[in-house]
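Notebook, p. 212. Picked up where the previous page left off. The plan for this session was modest: take the two constructs that came back from the sequencing core last week, fold each one, and keep the raw output in the notebook itself so nobody has to go hunting through shared drives later. Recording the first one now, exactly as returned: residue sequence, then the structure token string.
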Amino acid sequence: MTTTASFHDLLGVPADLPVVDVDTHRTETPDLWTSRAPARYADRLPRVEEIDGTPQWIFDGAPVGIYSPSSVVDEDGGKMLGLSFAGRTLEQVHAGSYDVAARLALMDAMGIRAQIVYPNAFGFGGQLFVQAADPELRLLAVQIFNDANAEMQEQSGERLFGMAIVPWWDVEASVAEIARCAAMGMRGVNLGTGPHLHGLPDLSEPAWDPLWEACAEHALPVNFHIGASGDTMSWFGTSPWPSHDAEHKLAIGSAMMYLSNASVMANLIFGGVLERHPDVQFVSVESGIGWIPFFLHSLDYQLEQSTPGRLGTKFSLTPSEYFRRQMHACFWFEERGVAEAVAALGDTNVLFETDYPHPTCLYPDSLTTAADAIRSLPEVSRRRVLSDNAVRLYRLPLS
């Protein structure tokens, strides 16, 4: 059996370095909301009901999506490939997908000290909470979800850190929820990317300034997980052509979804969000890093070619400089080109993830893959990428 010490030997880092995995998911159990619901809302908050033989999430009386554990790790710890994970029940996937104690045991076996945790059922950015018409009910659903994340953090002994969802349809309510989650000790905000798809201002508009200011005040990084809007998550967006079968669509859509965060980066930068809010830190989650140096280079070029005169007037920095000051990105399966990307982006801007337990996750040999990717980096860079950057960014109480 591989020990934590041997994992660290493999990585070439000190034995006491706490490895942090900055992108994982926890399967929501069917009773997450109903077990915490005020009595008068119990039949309106999210619950699971079987419809025509298929378990589905029901929110305010209407089906909003199929209930799925979204885990490719089976009950015996094996990894399922392709679409073989589809249709599995909670009992047919590994308990580490949803149970805190089982997750901690798995993390120990994998050599990982702490994990950042994202949702499944209501979108990777919480974008599907808007499907209920009643804003009060939506807010309650978000608050219960965040309460459950705070409970998970405490139960895990400060090893599992769920990112807070905000009621993004209401900026004032979002600011209040950010303050509430900060008071509970939560370490970051998870934001959807498409409020403009619902008739709201897009994230670069001044209407959102109070939210960015609240994140800066409470030192909470803002995380943009891929697939955090309806246009990118509907069967992995529009990238796969219609003639492909389901597994080919999964392959193409998954690969293209990583690049959807390029749009988020560009719009935040050219929308002036980073210029106006220099104290807010942003994270591009589950997007990889190899493409980012070229993309930033292209943004730098387009700033000069397409927006002449803006540098020094609207913008005090180039896009590449904004990235180094305020943005971070994560890698997992990349083994080639990681060292070059780290050199180009800066070794304080890159984080490590596994995406457990989703289809592309590094499992079970997570740190073996990481070791292959970062072997050529100097030790100080390996430490930063695997641990120090995440500890600093999320203010993790690890020693």
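Okay, moving on. Second construct, recorded in the same format:
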Amino acid sequence: MTTSEVDRDHVQSLERGITLLLAFDAEHPEPTLAELAQLTGFSRPAVRRFLITLERMGYVRSNGSGRWSLTPRVLTIGQHYTESHALIELAQPHLLGLAEQTQESASLSTLDGAEVVYVARVPVRRIMSINVSVGTRVPAHATSMGRVLLAWAPDELVDEVLLRYPPQAITTNTVTDVGALRAALAEVRRQGWSTVSEELETGLLSASAPVRDRSGAVVAALASSTSTGRSTVEQLEREVVPLLVETADRLSADLGGTARAS
């Protein structure tokens, strides 16, 4: 498809409507029309039209004092995603089983650009100070999940993540050197799993293993998380990683995939 064909088929108003919805976040839960215009770069008349349309559809509401907020209806978008992806439904019993065996939180995630997105989770203890739930995004380079997903990703995607979005230090332990990260990905491919200690958050320790579909492609990362106060990297690799890899292999089998493909 040529650039002109892509431009012709591109629906700018839809893109802008979604951009406006994404402007509502933790820092701007109830923005004004003027604030939304500043956040999106759209004109005030355009923002007003989008808000009126989204209000009629039930996705936003006005509180009567010039501020706007999202409505619970936006959650149905994520619900439709969950219901339309067999991976998430199949993963739930495996996540529960892993959490029961380890007495630690179990998560399933996918890769979206330079970020990892949680698509399913069974929390056991509160480990992270940030609120982790389905839909939470974290930097791929600083997580065991991200390294698993990048380890088997196409080279061009890895280059984009590491070069277009230079890794940033989140804690004093975060690996940001591109060469060191590429070496870490090679090690993940070699051993078939990943552990990361205190790179995303001080005190957070996690391990991840790949989940494959029927084609053998890695489509998700299965993770178990704990704290450095309850475990060490050595303990995690000895006691949890075998359970994690076994669980990821069973989930892969449910998807028609094969375990530990190269």
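Notes on construct two before I forget. The radius of gyration is 21 Å.
Flagging for discussion at group meeting.
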